[in-house]
Write a structure and sequence with these properties.
The chain is mainly alpha-helical. The chain is rod-shaped, with a radius of gyration of 26 Å.
Length: 67
């Protein structure tokens, strides 16, 4: 289904069905962006949590203030 009507003369170039493209494309783009951000942040927080627990164990359980 073509979205453009190049042979319409003075009529609009975009056909009426073009709005359905945006109705699907924008929510899917936002969904993919949210999944990507979640996949980047969640493992990072999990990794940092393990690293901080490892630092505490390496220091004998003591943490100095200011770290």
């Amino acid at each position: 289904m073509p979205f453009f009507n190049w042979e319409g003369g003075d009529l609009p170039v975009l056909k009426d069905g073009f709005k359905y493209y945006w109705a699907v494309a924008i929510p899917l783009t936002l969904l993919v962006l949210c999944v990507w951000v979640g996949s980047m942040l969640l493992p990072w927080r999990r990794w940092m949590g393990k690293k901080q627990r490892g630092d505490v164990e390496a220091n004998g359980g003591d943490r100095m203030k200011g770290e």
